[in-house]
């Protein structure tokens, strides 16, 4: 009996081992793979249905190179003198802010021409921003030159400066009691010649080409040999060109010398107003050089 009480106790443990194909780990991996493939094909579908403008915006967003766009920081716009302003103190200098197009995002205004066109548009925009800054500096130089000269300061209300899509427009206008040219001729008064020379000194520092326009008022004119306002306006524009040439603006920078007679008045409702008689000097914007492969 005592031997029976000392029998060893044997504990049997059943060891269960997972066998490769019978486990569940592969299901988790497969589910991850299917999810990734679904996301990938959804991305391809979204890229296929997205418009080119959106794709261009995404490309610009992830582009490693970026440039800060500097807009025109001009002050409030000042309009040219009007008839209602007569009798009031004239503005010492009229500067019209750039009325250009509103600021656009990197993907707006781009044609559906692919990446090449978007790069050209970006280059053109950068050049325009740089030219705007140069034009603003030119405005400041002229403003200071006029203020510091007693002779030019008397003509400060006859200078209108404006930055446009074509470039920087500088208009030197007549006043009722202060004309720039002797009546019916292309002979400049001394103060008018000094003003054009001041403009020449300022624009001589820029590489841009110039267009010079002569304008008359709507009054009929009949000069020697049957000349009209057309010949008179052209002669006056050429007289301004000669003054610019004396200040260092070389002939290769002159794009055009044009006589417009009375076809482009500042005040269309009053074609006989003295301010319609003027010289316009347009500092042209320079178009960016397009590489030969850009059009392919």
Automatic annotation (TrEMBL):
GO cellular component, one term: plasma membrane
Subcellular location as annotated: Cell membrane
Main location: membrane
Transmembrane segments annotated in the record for this chain: 28-47
InterPro entries: Bact_OuterMem_StrucFunc, MotB-like_N_dom, OmpA-like, OmpA-like_sf
CDD domains (alphabetical): OmpA_C-like
Keyword rRNA-binding: no
Record domain OmpA-like: where: 168-287
Region: Disordered, residue numbers: 73-118
Signal peptide: none
Basic and acidic residues: bias regions: 108-118
Membrane topology recorded in Swiss-Prot or TrEMBL: Single-pass membrane protein
Keywords: Cell membrane, Cell projection, Cilium, Flagellum, Membrane, Transmembrane, Transmembrane helix
Cited PANTHER family: LIPOPROTEIN YIAD-RELATED, STATOR ELEMENT OF FLAGELLAR MOTOR COMPLEX
Family, as annotated: Belongs to the MotB family.
Protein's UniProt name: Flagellar motor protein MotB
Annotated source species: Gimibacter soli
């Amino acid at each position: 009996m005592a031997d029976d009480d000392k029998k060893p106790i044997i504990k049997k443990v059943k060891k269960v081992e997972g066998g490769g194909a019978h486990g569940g780990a592969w299901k988790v991996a497969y589910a991850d793979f299917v999810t990734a493939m679904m996301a990938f094909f959804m991305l391809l579908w979204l890229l296929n249905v997205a418009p080119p403008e959106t794709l261009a915006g995404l490309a610009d967003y992830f582009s490693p190179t970026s440039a800060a766009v500097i807009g025109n920081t001009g002050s409030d716009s000042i309009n040219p003198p009007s008839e209602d302003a007569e009798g009031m103190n004239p503005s010492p200098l009229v500067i019209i802010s750039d009325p250009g197009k509103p600021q656009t995002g990197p993907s707006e205004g781009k044609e559906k021409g692919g990446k090449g066109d978007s790069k050209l548009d970006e280059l053109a925009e950068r050049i325009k921003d740089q030219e705007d800054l140069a034009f603003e500096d030119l405005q400041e130089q002229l403003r200071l030159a006029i203020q510091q000269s007693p002779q030019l300061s008397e003509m400060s209300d006859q200078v209108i400066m404006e930055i446009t899509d074509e470039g920087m427009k500088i208009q030197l206008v007549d006043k009722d009691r202060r004309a720039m040219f002797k009546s019916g001729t292309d002979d400049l008064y001394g103060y008018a010649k000094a003003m054009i020379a001041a403009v020449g000194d300022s624009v001589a520092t820029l590489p841009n080409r110039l267009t010079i326009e002569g304008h008359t008022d709507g009054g009929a004119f009949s000069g020697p040999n049957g000349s009209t306002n057309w010949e008179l306006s052209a002669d006056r524009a050429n007289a301004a060109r000669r003054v610019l040439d004396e200040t260092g603006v070389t002939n290769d920078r002159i794009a055009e010398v044009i006589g417009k007679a009375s076809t482009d008045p500042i005040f269309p409702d009053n074609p006989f107003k003295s301010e319609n008689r003027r010289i316009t000097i347009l500092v042209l914007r320079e178009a960016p050089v397009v590489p030969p492969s850009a059009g392919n």
